[in-house]
Amino acid sequence: MEIEARPKMIGARVQRVEDPRMLTGHGRFIDDINLPRTLHIAFCRSDHGHARIAAIDSAEAAGMPGVAAVVTAADIEGLLQTVRATSTMANFHGTELPVLAMDKVRHVGEPIAAVLAESRYLAEDAAERIAVTYEALPTVIDPAAAAEPDAPLLHEEIGSNVLIERTFERGEVDAAMAAAPVRVGGHFRMHRKTPVAMENRGYLADYDQGRGSLTLHSTTQVPGIVRDTLVRMLDLPGNRLRVVAPDVGGGFGGKTALYREEVLVCVLARKFGRPVKWLSDRLEDLISTSQAFDEVVEAELACDDEGQILGLRADVIGDVGAYSGYPWSAAIEPVQVVSFLPGPYRVENYRGRVRGVATSKSPMGAYRGVGRPISTFVMERLIDMAAVKLSLDPLEMRRRNMVRAEEFPYKSASGIVWDRAGFLECLETACDGADYGALRRQQAAARQQGRWVGIGLASYVELTGLGSRIAVAPGMPVNTGTESATVRIDSTGAVTAYFGIASHGQGLETTLAQIVAEELGARLQDIEVLHGDSDAVAHGTGTYASRSAVLAGGAAIVSARAVREQVMKAASHLLEADAGDMDAANGEIFVKGTDRRLSFRELARAVYTEVNRLPRELREDIELEASNIYDPYFGTATPATHLAVVEVDPETFGVTVQRYVVADDCGRIINPLIADGQVHGGVAQGIGAALLEEVVYDDTGQILTASLMDYVVPTAVEIPAMEVFHLETELPNNIGGFRGLGEGGTIGAPAAIANAIADAVGHLNIDINELPMTPERLFRLVSQKEE
Amino acid sequence: MIKLTVNGIVYEREVEPRLSLADFLRHELGLTGTHVGCEQGVCGACTVILNGDSVRSCLCFAVQADGAEIETVEGLGSIDNLSPLQKSFQEHHALQCGFCTPGMLMTGVDLLRKYPLATDEEIREGLSGNLCRCTGYQHVVRAIRAVVEAGNGD
Question: How far is Cα A428 from Cα A459, in angstroms, rounded to an integer?
């Protein structure tokens, strides 16, 4: 008899288990949760960029219909401990993050007072009647000026606006550059972005006075981090503070910070003994959720006459906004820019210096790609600029400098160790997939007709699924290197898998179930994945930094294998067979080559309820549950190459993306549908970053992009159909063989688009060193050239 | 007092003049499938069909819908019996976080009823009032395209 083949769940194009509820309006998002007696918050926020608060008059607001209270910083003093992001890095200065502004405000939108009312409508009516008297202070808007010693200070106690300074150095960069025959460089500028998850942030705290316990429903990506921090701030034991992320409408890093509003609803729910809810509206989202990608980079690349890189140096200023956010700190993005700048290339001589500078803007925080969209933009522009100077094809320039298969493990110039991954293979696959040679011929033909068509390449490598060896934010006190999974078969034979991650669009309820199903031999429909709940496992942080497939997937494998061992121990007795002769598939354990079989349900009944089925000693020895932690230690490398074809309209200077190809190495694919979706979404955000999206502050610190009419995100019309190729290079020393791929699209796209535009206007000899490249910017560049 | 039909059911309610249709559907009728993403008429998450046309329920007051016939996502297929468009969204992975999805579906239904959608450009143009931050739109376009090609209605 033929041995029964076990159907492969990992790698299968499984439809998502999340979808039916989302498609029928049965998703349960934060605003779909309603508790009786809830008080709704509306904030009075600062309309000054930097000012001392002279007086707050809330008497009228407090007397309005339906208003329970108006709360300012003075009213919550003593009800919570302060919070401050820390780092072991030298030259790092943390800032306290006040829940409500104390004596001064440091950016427009900073919360000053909260109105609690019976409905949001009434709360907003009252918030408008709060009168704040300000004494204006000088704002600091330009980060370079803010870094000067005589600049007005946002945090006087630090004595400088420079919150972090760091330099990475290898080799003799100045000597190498001085001696190099070819040098290219420039002043690069990426403008500020914000994630714009379609669901705004929101929090609902419920305090049970009888039990002294608090439940926070939060649109967070990191329930574990929020729980652990609130426990400290509110002086509650961990078993009386539960943080639950319900269905969350996207995050992209913007929901990984601990937010002031999140802390405040907890404090007020305890103070007033009623549930307290706050939902951000879009205006509040655009002025208070993480902002990012705001860097100024002076960079220079040197190479020999053959295009071999000889040296790279850069000076980076990151605009980190008014506060060092918790937990990632002001260091996370600027430091990543210099640690990833050398890219997937052999760079032996390098110096990257970075300063993170405080300004009168909303705090910088995590956003998809964190630093690497900027480092990739700069490095890939430099590579193309050098190629132009050498009259070398950009593809060939990359081939000559990329780390080759025989060079792994390769230690990068900033100290990151790259292990085996398809660096060059991605480059070749993208170019083959797009038929690069044909594209160049088509481009030449279009140029003959006077059309401005350009082709842009961008290659990068990112660290994903970080283990305990490297913290997600440098020197931070939170362990981001492990995740937990508990897998349990209950007395009905149903399987529940509990995780510390928090899926918010990634489809982890499906992919993690696929992993558990394959490892256990259970059916997908018999597995329930629970996540986004700090009570699910003893320790977990959440979903961010392209980690969930690698870490939670790894933990799922370890725990599911441990449970499978227990299943086989029981089944061995029940089926009277050696464990080695048995297998499990489709929810059944069977003796290979026979018709002896047992469902998970029957097995569970025998273990838990039918006490005479197993000998007592064996029964007491069997536990159909396992909890394990997975730590990938170093983490995984995910390389990719993006290829974009754009056309610039010489009349309007509008840029149209005509073709977009991605080749990435994401290791073993769990679900091809979901893998493609992650890349598509990331690329769309990267195209937005390259062409449309920009948070604008004026010189007085007023934010000019406070609606989605002004902060422009791409629609279906601006985003082209994308062609995606996945390589599945085997991963050494990693249990699942998965690499993270959630952020890559956003890392590669700005650089690929910038290079394509530069190529399209190459005949005008214009540098494309600023993003987003709006029609207005491009028009000015062309006009300046023509003058 | 307003009287309107939502997904075939007639409701009569007393409402404040300033209550938005989106808040009315969500908070008064408990139909929380309609989502609110911007309250500025840009994102399209709150799209419903009112008297046969897709509208932003965040820009419409409940009182303006007096006497109207409204369709929301809850009026499409059910969990056990998805509509062709809902099914196609699942098959083509046209949703990730699911927040924009109800609006995408209602716009999709409106497009499928009114236009031939012969090219993907037409579909993209039709979807340009609905923002999605997760999918990059590609699978949404594909899902609608598949329903057009199957020709069995929305």
Answer: 11
